[in-house]
Design brief:
six-stranded mixed beta sheet; 8 strands; alpha+beta; two-stranded antiparallel ribbon; 2 domains; 205 residues
Length: 205
């Protein structure tokens, strides 16, 4: 093979190799980028919100933690802390959801719930500022007996259950049926997140 023909052979092989390389990049690169691109938005489409969606642990995970929940003191004018076991979740939003669901559920034997019967958790979101937004069903309003004391105890049972068990969450705002409300029954301002309310808790002897 003459030097001139050899040069053209090498040039043709080089062009062919480049074409193959471009084809491989075009075929595989877009899929790789989609598979590895992180997301920064929460389930509502707003950056900085983390929502509780489904189980955070693997299937069959039966781990449990001890959580402090709040029920009515025998005197009726305060909350008392009661230890309850609830399922463990690795994600803070999911763990908060499980804590609130247990707080809203029927009280354990020997205790009295301050949450109106039928109240359920609709959604729960955490922000990067350490605030939780807890959206509950309208039964918390329609089933409430009224009175300023009972309203404070109802709200702070939820606020304290989250902030005491999850110290990284510093404040909680209660929403009703997906909407911000002024109050539940006319006394406690719910238009902003509330911090832990220890003054409403009475330690048992």
């Amino acid at each position: 093979m003459t030097p001139h023909r050899r040069m053209w052979t090498y040039l043709a092989l080089g062009v062919l190799g480049a074409a193959v390389g471009v084809w491989l990049v075009t075929l595989w690169l877009p899929g790789w980028l989609v598979a590895t691109r992180p997301t920064s938005e929460g389930p509502t489409g707003a950056a900085g919100l983390t929502g509780a969606t489904g189980s955070a642990g693997p299937a069959g995970d039966t781990r449990r933690i001890s959580a402090t929940l709040f029920y009515v003191a025998p005197s009726g004018d305060a909350l008392i802390p009661v230890e309850q076991e609830i399922p463990y979740a690795a994600a803070p939003a999911e763990q908060a959801r499980r804590i609130v669901e247990r707080q809203l559920a029927a009280a354990p034997s020997g205790q009295v719930s301050v949450i109106p019967a039928g109240t359920t958790l609709r959604a729960l979101f955490l922000t990067a500022r350490g605030e939780a937004y807890v959206d509950v069903s309208r039964e918390i309003v329609t089933g409430h007996p009224g009175g300023s004391l009972h309203e404070f105890l109802t709200v702070y049972a939820i606020v304290n259950a989250i902030t005491i068990n999850l110290p990284d969450i510093t404040a909680v705002q209660v929403l009703v049926d997906g909407r911000e409300v002024d109050t539940l029954v006319g006394h406690l301002d719910l238009r902003h997140p509330l911090r832990r309310g220890i003054r409403w808790v009475r330690r048992t002897p």
